[in-house]
Amino acid sequence: MATVIDGKAVAQTIRSEIAEEVRALSQKYGKVPGLAVVIVGNRKDSQSYVGMKRKACAELGIKSFDIDLPEQVSESDLIKQVHQLNVNPDVHGILVQLPLPKHINEEKVLSEISLGKDVDGFHPLNIGKLAMKDRDPLFLPCTPKACIELLSRSGVSIKGKKAVVVGRSNIVGLPASLLLLKADATVTIVHSRTTQPESIIREADIVIAAAGQPMMIKGSWIKPGAAVIDVGTNAVDDPTKKSGYRLVGDVDFEEASKVAGWITPVPGGVGPMTVTMLLHNTLEGAKRCFE
Ligand code: GUN
Q: Is 237 a catalytic residue?
């Protein structure tokens, strides 16, 4: 049976470390880190993610700046808001929750965030540096950073290993593959046009699943002893639940946990770590300003 990686517990440990550092900074400089969380419109999933981010800030002593804009806001007004946050000395991190409404060009907005405040790590220059050898971005994207942190805190070495990333999104799959490459893994990306993904996944010492397909990866696809990090958060109907649904990952946990060496559960694996990495990035941004 696999070791189940307790993301909630690891996240709690790191959050305590961050809270301690925030207290020390506050005593030394009389200032605390600040994170601006910008949300456009009222998508339920985005509101829930943004709520978690703001709540976590409050718990750790990080000041959150809450910017809630209507669905119809123009691209230029959103960019004006970003510019104001760029020059606000109390704001050390800016996060624009994605996806944005269709009439707004996401890349254009993300490109306007000051590089030193890009705590999501989505600015094209930060992503570009992530893709280049011997260059370091100012911030690493939160979910891929969470995956690597879970592997390293579980004692899984990456160097020289065969890693397979399932999914190629800008937010998770692509940056996760770049981070694994930086950590000296041999990386393959499997995506929706890959033929026979199972034969490729079966070769992997490390699997990062970020396809958004409920329980797509079966136990028989996993190499015995592999480390499996499941980023998927899929709601599936479940009439036995009060809510009518339950969350499952991209991996069939019951089957895969009998084969893998390590595995993250859903929920309670990568999710709690992603918000924690955002807070960590905000702390880093603030330290660069204060010190
Ligand atoms: N939407 C889904 N995941 C993310 C994330 O990590 N950051 C932002 N800004 N939006 C998201």
A: no
For residue 241, give every residue at least 6 positions away whose Cβ sits within 8 Å of its Cβ, in sequence order, or none.
none
Ligand 1 centroid, distance to 27 Cα (angstroms): 32
**Separation between Cα atoms, residue 85 and residue 10, nearest integer Å:** 31
**How confident is the model over 208-222, as a mean pLDDT?**
98
Give yes or no on whether 29-114 and 142-271 have one common fold: yes
Q: Alpha-carbon distance 194 to 183, whole Å? A: 24
Phi and psi (nearest 5°) for 139?
A: -140, 145
- Segment 259-280 shows an average pLDDT of 98
Q: Which of 63, 81, 118, 120 is catalytic?
A: 120
Overall CATH class of domain 142-271? alpha beta
Q: Tell me how far apart the alpha carbons of residues 250 and 246 are, in angstroms, rounded to a whole number.
A: 13
Q: 41 pLDDT band (50/70/90 cuts)?
A: very high
Catalytic residue list contains 53:
yes
Residue nearest to atom 1 of ligand 1 (CA): 98
Whole-number pLDDT of residue 223: 98
Tell me what pLDDT residue 5 has: 98
* Assigned CATH for 29-114: 3.40.50.10860
Catalytic site includes residue 230: no
ipTM over 0.85: yes
> Which residues sit with their C-beta closer than 6 Å to ligand 1?
95-98, 120, 142-143, 171
Q: In the prediction, which pLDDT does 264 show?
A: 98
Question: For the whole model, what pTM was predicted?
Answer: 0.96
Sketch the domain layout of the chain as residue ranges.
Answer: 29-114, 142-271
